[in-house]
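README: folding subset

This subset contains proteins for which both the sequence and a predicted structure token string are available. Records are stored as plain text. Below is the entry for Phenylalanine--tRNA ligase alpha subunit (339 residues), shown exactly as it appears on disk.
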Amino acid sequence: MSEKLDSILKEALERIDSSDTTEKLNEVRVDVLGKKGKLKTVLKGMKDVDPKDRPAVGQMVNDAREKIEGELDFIKQKIEREALDKRLKDEVIDVTLPARRNKIGHRHPNTIVLGELERIFIGMGYEVVEGPDIELDLYNFEKLNIPANHPAKDEQDTFYINKDIVLRTQTSPVQARVMEKGKLPIRMIAPGRVFRADEVDATHSPSFHQVEGLVIDKHITFSDLKGTLAEFAKELFGPDTKTKFRPHHFPFTEPSAEMDVSCFKCGGKGCRFCKGEGWIEILGCGMVHPHVLEMSGIDPDEYTGFAFGVGLERIALLKYEIDDMRLLYENDQRFLNQF
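--- output ---
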């Protein structure tokens, strides 16, 4: 029995000393000290040992177990220490290297332009008002002097949820909601997302953004409209910018006009950017229709006003000379980081 224990101990210590991974050490632990290990087998054979020799044999088994467990722990610590030393050496940090730069978010061209528009009009005394994207037909059309049989209400142009609810096609409903509150005078702009049933191409999208403005007060004239928008154009495109108004038609304004600005690339001389005309169309405007005032409970004999609307994407395309509107929505960092 003594010779058998010596053989088990010698073999176990040799295997432990030659182990270079903790997995190999675990194999020795299971093979020698496990429930079905070699020392367990020796203990099962104690019934064949003379009773007077059993204490001595039991002590020998315990001594062998302690030596094996001690060596296992020692070699395990050695392997773990060597692995840690190697990892620290491989993962050494050079504190003289420059720090890694964190990637910081970047404002979208639309957001940059919107911030500039808001700055200009807030500087003129306007307030910024927002409204719901999902709007009642009553505010989106009826209160803006667009009757039931108007072409704009065709489902080819408008997203209808049901006959009374639409995705707003303009931010003008915000103006109607403010007017019906009756708190006069009014000087406001209404920026926001709008929706129209357009096919996606370089200049159209089913979802885009508008900024519409409204002024209601006593003695407001078309001259006030022209002066306001001329100042806006100079602030946005430069102090030498000129404006031109062309007659147009909008249901909620009368008279109505389209406003052009002199090309800020060529100064109005004519170039590729303005297609040789020297002028660029940027927005629609006009005096608020008296019937629109009446529907909102405002006396058109006492109050007058003007309104205007500009496409946010159009301003961004012009200001940054972008040829394709779709670039604004693709979220390509190579494109966005230019602004």
